[in-house]
């Protein structure tokens, strides 16, 4: 059993004692100081030793169990889980796919990828924006802050460090207009840069169609890597080693799966050993309904191989045009140079207003409120779809995010034809096959953000009517 006396004292001034206990034990496990199978201290004993409430330790242990670091069975002691060897390494220094157009219906019911902008906090945002527009500082108005003003970098970093476990310095945060702009920027820096693996990208399959298109436009050769209930499985990759690996580990798009801890560690070790960079798109991670959000992959990266991508398009509104990348230290200079040349910047008054919006606690308050709203809509959508469409579809659990995956029970169904039949009735669903690069499992992807709970049942019944016709005629 690990000695609590060897642990550093908790920082009671900064607060978040639960998070501190969680991170202390997680880091000891990852560094091999607590090997697999080792019994951990009892929650009561650890609470007494650290001088905290037992509930604080219980909640920290629950997080560690949820993320796969600890395991326990009824009547038995809690022990460190078994997974691949810890990441102790230090940082180390084809024929392209042609672009292809991807078109999806928009504006209809159950449209994926869009938040409920009707709930946007207009008054609070207007106050922040108006105040900053009138009082911008002189040095923020020049060319020097092309990577983002320091206030916003620090505010974002404080937020994602507390909520997502990201570990970085403000200099590593780069402000961009969208996740797509971040992907473009990093692709321009990392591809075709005299690297042994040149333009090869491993990418989740199924995956984010916009990322597919952006990487193709950059001239990359895409290697689809299958995803299952534990996320991307790099052991099943069939292709040349990659320069980039694009993943959505916390809430896989579109399946909703969370990457397991063994696969996270294996991915990080593979990237470090092969000189690859992992692009972690933290898609939909802010919204979790069945449990608290899983910590970001970047937070356990000890080799600086992860570039972390986040956006305010899904949490606030796409029209703000603000996203960010947290890049490894060795990439800061090249990313900033590329950004300066490309002009992928966000207006300074918007950046300053957003910094205030975050610092004043308005963003966190809005997220808490919308998490409740979206949880209700997701639950209503799942129930309605299972009731009306269960004869045709397996419906996902809907434990988080704004997307809900479903798959046809009959795997011979043409999901593109079914999608068109449903969308002709006022919907904007997407066929799962359109999100695959390799062999596809037919299904439909739905967005729940704008589906009022009271309207979900009628909408699902309407989908069922379209599927009844489409699957018979198909």
From TrEMBL:
Keywords: DNA-binding, Pyridoxal phosphate, Transcription, Transcription regulation. SUPFAM superfamilies: PLP-dependent transferases, Winged helix' DNA-binding domain. It holds the Pfam family Aminotran_1_2. The keyword Lipoprotein does not apply. InterPro entries: Aminotransferase_I/II_large, HTH_trans_reg/aminotransferase, PyrdxlP-dep_Trfase, PyrdxlP-dep_Trfase_major, Tscrpt_reg_HTH_GntR, WH-like_DNA-bd_sf, WH_DNA-bd_sf. CDD domains: AAT_like, WHTH_GntR. GO terms for molecular function: DNA binding; DNA-binding transcription factor activity; pyridoxal phosphate binding. Residues 15-83 form the HTH gntR-type domain. In the C-terminal section; belongs to the class-I pyridoxal-phosphate-dependent aminotransferase family. This is Putative transcriptional regulator protein.
């Amino acid at each position: 059993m690990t000695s609590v006396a060897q642990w550093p004292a908790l920082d009671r001034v900064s607060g978040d004692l639960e998070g501190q206990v969680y991170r202390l034990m997680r880091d000891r496990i990852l560094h091999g100081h607590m090997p697999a199978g080792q019994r951990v201290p009892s929650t009561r004993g650890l609470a007494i030793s650290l001088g905290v409430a037992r509930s604080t330790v219980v909640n920290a242990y629950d997080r560690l169990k949820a993320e796969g670091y600890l395991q326990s069975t009824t009547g038995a002691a809690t022990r460190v889980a078994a997974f691949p060897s810890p990441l102790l390494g230090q940082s180390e220094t084809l024929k392209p796919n042609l672009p292809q157009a991807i078109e999806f219906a928009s504006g209809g019911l159950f449209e994926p990828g869009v938040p409920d902008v009707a709930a946007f906090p207009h008054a609070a945002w207007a106050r922040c924006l108006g105040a900053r527009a009138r009082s911008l500082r002189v040095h923020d108005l020049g060319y020097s802050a092309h990577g983002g003003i320091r206030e916003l970098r620090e505010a974002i970093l404080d937020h994602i460090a507390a909520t997502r476990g990201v570990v970085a310095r403000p200099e590593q945060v780069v402000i961009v207009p969208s996740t797509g702009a971040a992907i473009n920027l990093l692709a321009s820096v990392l591809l075709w840069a005299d690297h042994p693996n040149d333009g090869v990208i491993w990418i989740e399959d199924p995956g984010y169609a916009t990322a597919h298109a952006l990487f193709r436009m950059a001239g990359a050769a895409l290697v689809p890597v299958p995803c299952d209930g534990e996320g991307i499985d790099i052991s099943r990759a069939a292709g040349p080693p990659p320069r980039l690996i694009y993943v959505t580990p916390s809430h896989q798009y579109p399946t909703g799966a969370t990457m397991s801890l063994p696969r996270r560690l294996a991915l990080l070790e593979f990237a470090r050993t092969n000189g690859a960079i992992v692009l972690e798109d933290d898609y939909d991670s802010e919204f979790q309904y069945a449990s608290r959000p899983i910590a970001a992959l970047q937070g356990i990266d000890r080799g600086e191989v992860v570039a972390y991508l986040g956006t305010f398009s899904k949490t606030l509104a796409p029209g703000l045009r603000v996203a960010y990348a947290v890049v490894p230290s060795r990439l800061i200079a090249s990313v900033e140079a590329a950004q300066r040349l490309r002009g992928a910047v966000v207006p300074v008054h918007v950046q300053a207003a957003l910094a205030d919006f975050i610092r004043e606690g308005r963003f966190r308050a809005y997220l808490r409120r919308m998490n409740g709203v979206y949880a209700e809509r997701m639950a209503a959508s799942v129930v309605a779809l299972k009731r009306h469409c269960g004869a045709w579809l397996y419906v996902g659990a809907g434990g988080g995010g704004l997307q809900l995956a479903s798959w046809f029970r009959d795997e011979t169904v043409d999901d593109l034809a079914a999608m068109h039949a449903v969308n002709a009735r006022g919907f904007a669903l997407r066929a799962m096959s359109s999100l695959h690069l390799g062999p596809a499992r037919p299904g439909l992807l739905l967005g729940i953000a704008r589906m009022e709970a009271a309207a979900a049942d009628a909408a699902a019944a309407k989908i069922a009517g379209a599927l009844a016709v489409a699957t018979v005629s198909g």
